[in-house]
Amino acid sequence: MSKAQSKPEVDKPEIEEVEDDQLNRAIEELRGVLSEEEKRPSATSATTAAGNNSVIFGIPVEVQIVLGSTEMPVSELMALQKGSTVALDRRIGEPVDVVVNGRRIARGEITVLESDPSRFGIRLTEIVAATKSA
């Protein structure tokens, strides 16, 4: 092998020493953080719980207010036009269902919002008891 093709030698013990120093500093820093957390476990668990709650409370869910429903053959559905009337299975004054992600969670009555009379709202009258799923 000629001298032009040879690679310069790197002092391996010097590189290993630098890497060891960096590793030791990282370990000491980690130990310091861990010992601080051990001194205040209640604060850490409360912070973690609050962080988990904010993640959970931020999950969007679909809320529907179901006024009523009906069944009809496809031929009647196809015959619907602008101005057609569809009869629902509920009467005026009957409670409506509050459905979250496909599951009924409450019932209520339709009301007009005091703050904006041009909009409807729901006044909850019953919370449906949760059933355990298998």
Biggest sheet strand order reads 1-2-3-4
Overall CATH class of the largest domain: Mainly Beta
**Poorly predicted sequence stretches spanning 5 or more consecutive residues:** none
**Overall number of domains:** 2
Number of strands: 4
Helix content range of the residues, please?
25-40%
CATH architecture of the largest domain: Roll
Strand content: 15-25%
CATH superfamily annotation of the largest domain: SpoA-like
Order of helices and strands: HHEHEEE
What is the overall shape? elongated
Which fold name is given in CATH as the topology of the largest domain? Surface presentation of antigens (SPOA)
> What profile does the largest beta sheet have?
4 strands, antiparallel
Radius of gyration: 33 Å
What layout of secondary structure does this protein have?
Layout: H1 12-39, H2 41-57, E1 63-66, H3 74-79, E2 96-100, E3 103-112, E4 120-127
Antiparallel strand pairs: 1-2, 2-3, 3-4
What are the key terms here?
single chain, 134 residues, alpha+beta, Surface presentation of antigens (SPOA), 2 domains, 4 strands, elongated
Describe the overall structure.
Belongs to the FliN/MopA/SpaO family. This is Flagellar motor switch protein FliN. Residues 58-128 form the Flagellar motor switch protein FliN-like C-terminal domain. By secondary structure, the protein is an alpha+beta fold. The protein is built from three helices and four strands; from the N terminus they run ααβαβββ. It folds into two domains: 12-57, no CATH class; 63-127, Roll (Surface presentation of antigens (SPOA)). It is 38% helix and 20% strand. The chain has a four-stranded antiparallel β-sheet, with no helix packed on it. The protein starts with 11 loop residues before the first helix and ends in a 7-residue tail after the last strand.
